[in-house]
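Render this sequence as a predicted structure.
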Amino acid sequence: MSLKKLWTALKGGSNEVVEAIADSQSIRILDQEMREAKEELVACDQNLTKIMAKRKLAESKVESFKNDIETYTQHAIAASEKGNNEIALECAEKVSEIESMLEVEQGILDGFLSSEKTLKANIAKAKTNVRRMEQQIDQIKATESVQKAQVAVSTRHVGANSKVKTALSSLDRIKAKQQERAAELEAADELASEESGSDLDAKLKAAGITPGGQSSSSDKLAQILAAKNKQ
């Protein structure tokens, strides 16, 4: 391998390591951002609760002012019908005063209502984005775990096949050695038989000649018959 190719291979491996570290850090960063986003959403919910509470108070004040205006309006009418213009005028002045306060409080209420509506929409959108991002992160983590398991299984499978091939080769070598050893033992037995004369005895026996000078059955019968004839 040339130095250029070797450098390219090393550079490629280095890039893969750097990318793997960067990917791992990216997931950690996303997890941290998700935690921070959730904390911000909790704070947003708390602020929304405060705004809703103030809005309710403003609504109560607006409703109270409206009731007071209605009450003093009726008082002014009643006083005027009875001819008591002084009281009627005081009631009318009171109505005017309350209407001014109502206008201010209604503006505050409208502001709370607008803020509440906007904040609710933004919080809902943020929560949706957080849930979507969490789902994607979980999916990425799950896919990463599955792929790591697949790589481990694949690597073990290749290693197992290699081990099986090695074991089979070992078995073939053992069988060959055993066959060679059996042949050597057989040859040793033949050599021992030749040295002890057992091979010659086997040849004599095959030729019908009894080893050790002993006569055959026919020879023995001839001797018996010859002895009888001599009597």
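Summary. The radius of gyration is 57 Å. The first helix runs from residue 3 to 81.
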